[in-house]
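User: I've been trying to design a sequence by hand for this structure and keep getting stuck. Would you show me what you'd pick, starting by listing the structure so we're on the same page?

Assistant: Good idea, let's start from the same input. This is the structure you sent:
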């Protein structure tokens, strides 16, 4: 006799196949209309409309964020959360493939909505804006969105199928130097060069990079370097990210980087101002039992999961899903949507996100998420294992 859970998994996979054309059309539409963080008005509306169409009760503008939503179906516990991201990157659109994340999550929701009356419990689809620097999940968590969720999951496109990603904690700093303007040819001695201060700090950071860990990163841009070559710049500014493997190491690295910025001011006489901008992202605790279940479900679809031991720790990124993983048992697997040679955050990756391989990632991602959600909904002993791993620190 066929296991009832296997039957349910077959049914949600068939349901995703039935939604395939609509999901791919939605993914391509989001991809063709990229919107930056907290401005994803079209994408959030399209996703909310789709989820309403398949039976969800949708709260738009959730947590006082205009482009967030929370869609619910079913009732009571257990409650499984599936997360959608849909913001794009400046200049390169969906170079991180968030159109795939969004529609894989919505597709999983559509499939689960077909069976939730038989499984019991609830499915909650979260529309989480502004992952690319705005920290939408952090704001939503602070406002109680995930308080009653038993497990949270999403899937992110990549160049390989991975059970997790190496997630670094990250902080954003905005620095400004104030100098004194003067004619750069006639009276340079009367000026204080704010750009020199910033360049000095930038080069000092470059020297610091020799002496930081493999998992640490410091990178930034100059956002203001002066107005004209014949005027000593009285104002210069930059935006920098600082990353480390844990929040504890991040705090130490932040102190060292601040020393570099202060050195620029000391060397030139310019005055330094700085502030930490936005939300600080945490490292990620991937829940191992949940990740193992996702791996088994993905392999049912004929995909081969790469062993994380074969992925260098230096191949990493940051996400506000890390902050959520400290509050709720969570996973953030990666699904192949592009060749392994194509890097994230590139125009080439953006092209793959609206290609046949990107479309297949939407479909397979939706199926794997839906099947993993069924494991949570239908197996009390599995929920206990997830919770034990979360509380025990084996995440």
């Amino acid at each position: 006799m066929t296991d009832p859970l296997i039957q349910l998994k077959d049914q949600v996979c068939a349901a995703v196949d039935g939604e395939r054309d609509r999901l791919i059309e939605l993914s391509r539409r989001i991809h063709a209309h990229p919107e930056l963080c907290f401005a994803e008005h079209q994408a959030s509306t399209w996703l909310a409309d789709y989820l309403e169409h398949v039976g969800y009760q949708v709260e738009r503008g959730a947590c006082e964020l205009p482009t967030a939503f929370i869609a619910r179906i079913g009732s009571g516990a257990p409650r499984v959360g599936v997360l959608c991201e849909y913001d794009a990157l400046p200049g390169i659109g969906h170079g991180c493939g968030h159109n795939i994340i969004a529609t894989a999550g919505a597709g999983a929701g559509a499939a689960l909505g077909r069976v939730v009356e038989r499984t019991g419990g609830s499915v909650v689809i979260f529309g989480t804006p502004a992952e690319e620097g705005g920290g939408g999940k952090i704001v939503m968590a602070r406002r109680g969105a995930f308080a009653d969720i038993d497990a949270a999951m999403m899937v992110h496109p990549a160049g390989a199928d991975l059970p997790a990603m190496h997630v670094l904690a990250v902080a954003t700093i905005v620095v400004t130097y104030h100098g004194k303007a003067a004619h750069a040819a006639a009276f340079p001695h009367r000026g204080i060069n704010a750009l020199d201060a910033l360049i000095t700090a930038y080069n000092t950071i470059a020297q610091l990079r020799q002496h930081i860990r493999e998992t640490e990163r410091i990178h930034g841009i100059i956002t203001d370097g002066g107005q004209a070559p014949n005027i000593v710049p009285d104002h210069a500014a930059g935006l920098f990210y600082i990353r480390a493997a844990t929040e504890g190491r991040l705090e130490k690295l932040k102190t060292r980087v601040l020393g570099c910025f202060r050195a620029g001011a000391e060397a030139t006489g310019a005055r330094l101002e700085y502030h930490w901008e936005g939300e600080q992202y945490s490292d990620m605790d991937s829940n191992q039992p949940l990740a193992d279940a996702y791996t088994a479900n993905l392999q049912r679809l004929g995909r081969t999961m790469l062993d994380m031991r074969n992925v260098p720790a230096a191949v990493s990124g940051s996400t506000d899903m890390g902050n959520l993983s400290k509050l709720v048992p969570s996973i953030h697997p990666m699904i192949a949507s592009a060749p392994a040679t194509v890097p994230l955050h590139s125009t080439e990756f953006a092209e793959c996100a609206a290609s046949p391989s990107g479309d297949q990632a939407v479909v397979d991602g939706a199926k794997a998420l839906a099947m993993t959600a069924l494991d949570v909904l239908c197996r009390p002993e599995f929920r206990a294992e997830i919770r034990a791993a979360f509380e025990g620190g084996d995440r």
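That's my pick for every position. To get oriented when you compare it with your attempt: The first strand starts at residue 57 and ends at 60. The chain has a mean pLDDT of 96.
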